């Protein structure tokens, strides 16, 4: 396999040897970070957990004063921030095994549960295994459109695609429920490709986990505030919606803005370690921002680094990002990054454009990366 990418000076070809050398350099970078893990990483995650718990206690406490609008709004803000931290900087990263080296039972990826309706074991399968192994491979990675959206021109168009932006908005508002249903493969159930026997165990686990979440947020905690039951219920509901919108936006900015590329099973057959690294770099995008922004995004604002090293503590991504970018420049590969407004605008622009039939939407300019496999070039990308 060789990779050819267009530059201002013309085409640049990366040979198989160069790709494997890039892979070795990334392996060395990973090894250096792994060898350096220690007290500062341990203290970082403990600090985040303390902040998350303080925000949750503050938010739920403020709901006891919910009859005063400023306190209700402050409660929603605090609880929303708590749920975002639990979902992204704690839950997502812990379940990737980023802190297994600490041997802390409460941070063990195999037993950790998060404050959302999706059972952690199902998420680890759909996300850790399916998505991170087969990133952006059509027919393998179901995160390409989540089974309901057209986010890539390689996905076939039909009249139902006209609702693409509406489906995306619905998924955004109910994102935790969309994530929960991911492993069910609802589109395959509708097509008759999956039966009840295929999903019975999944549904049982989902009902158990979602039932506990609904009971906690919409019955127990509202009941504890007595006459403010409805106000507290509304606050909990709003905090969940805020968390869903934020999580959807960060994840979609990392996977679907202009320039992020997709692949076919044929193009990635017999993939080497170096080629896997290149696919992760071409199939991801970053978001620039402040330190607080990165923390609140679970450092998934460094999606390129996360896809390269999903089990390294995410607080290390900002420090290795310049080294990853330098490697991209060295080998002539694109490093897709930009402001949140730019990336999210690009995502929604694509969702609207791809809702249209191809003869109206036109074709998106390719980023110029071509994969050469067995001497036969084929374009890869959106």
Description:
Pfam families: FA_desaturase (PF00487). This is Acyl-CoA desaturase. GO terms for molecular function: oxidoreductase activity, acting on paired donors, with oxidation of a pair of donors resulting in the reduction of molecular oxygen to two molecules of water. There is one protein chain. The chain has 382 residues and is of the alpha+beta class. The protein has one domain. 57% of the residues lie in helices and 6% in strands. The protein is built from 15 helices and six strands. It has a four-stranded antiparallel β-sheet with strand order 2-1-5-6.
Summarize the structure.
The protein has 382 residues and is α+β, with helices and mostly antiparallel strands. It has 15 helices and six strands.
Tell me, what's the shape?
globular
Could you give the order of strands across the largest sheet?
2-1-5-6
Main sheet characteristics = 4 strands, antiparallel
Low-confidence stretches: 368-382
Percent strand equals 5-15%
How many domains is the backbone divided into? 1
> On the 0-100 scale, what is the average pLDDT?
91
Order of helices and strands: EEHHHHHHHHHHEHHHEHHEE
Distance between the termini: 20 Å
């Amino acid at each position: 396999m060789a990779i050819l990418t267009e530059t201002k000076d013309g085409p640049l070809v990366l040979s198989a040897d160069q790709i494997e050398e890039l892979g070795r350099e990334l392996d060395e970078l990973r090894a250096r970070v792994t060898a350096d893990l220690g007290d500062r990483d341990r203290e970082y995650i403990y600090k985040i957990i303390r902040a998350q718990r303080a925000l949750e206690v503050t938010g739920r406490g403020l709901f006891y004063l919910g009859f005063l609008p400023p306190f209700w709004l402050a409660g929603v803000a605090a609880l929303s921030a708590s749920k975002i931290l639990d979902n992204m900087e704690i839950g997502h990263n812990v379940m990737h095994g980023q802190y297994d080296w600490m041997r802390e039972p409460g941070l063990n990826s195999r037993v950790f549960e998060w404050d959302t309706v999706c059972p952690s074991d199902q998420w680890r399968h759909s996300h850790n295994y399916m998505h991170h192994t087969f990133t952006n491979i059509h027919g393998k990675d179901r995160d390409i459109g989540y089974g309901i959206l057209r986010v890539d021109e390689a996905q076939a168009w039909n009249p139902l695609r006209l609702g693409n932006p509406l489906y995306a908005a619905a998924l955004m508002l109910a994102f935790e429920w969309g994530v929960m249903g991911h492993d069910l493969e609802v589109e395959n159930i509708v097509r008759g490709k999956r039966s009840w026997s295929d999903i019975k165990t999944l549904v049982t686990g989902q009902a158990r986990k979602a039932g506990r979440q609904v009971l906690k947020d919409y019955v127990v905690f509202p009941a504890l505030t007595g006459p403010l039951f409805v106000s507290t219920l509304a606050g909990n509901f709003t905090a969940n919606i805020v968390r869903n919108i934020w999580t959807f936006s960060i994840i979609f900015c990392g996977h679907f803005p202009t320039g992020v590329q997709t692949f076919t099973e044929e193009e990635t057959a017999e993939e080497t370690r170096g080629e896997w690294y290149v696919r992760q770099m071409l199939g991801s995008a970053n978001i620039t921002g402040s330190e607080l922004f990165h923390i609140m995004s679970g450092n998934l604002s460094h999606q390129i680094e996360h896809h390269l090293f999903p089990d390294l503590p995410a607080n290390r991504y900002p420090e290795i990002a310049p080294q990853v970018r330098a490697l991209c420049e060295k080998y002539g590969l694109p490093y897709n990054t930009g402001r949140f407004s730019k990336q999210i605008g690009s995502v929604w622009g694509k969702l609207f454009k791809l809702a249209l039939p191809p003869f109206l939407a036109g074709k998106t300019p390719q980023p110029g990366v071509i994969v050469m496999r067995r001497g036969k070039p084929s374009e890869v990308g959106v």
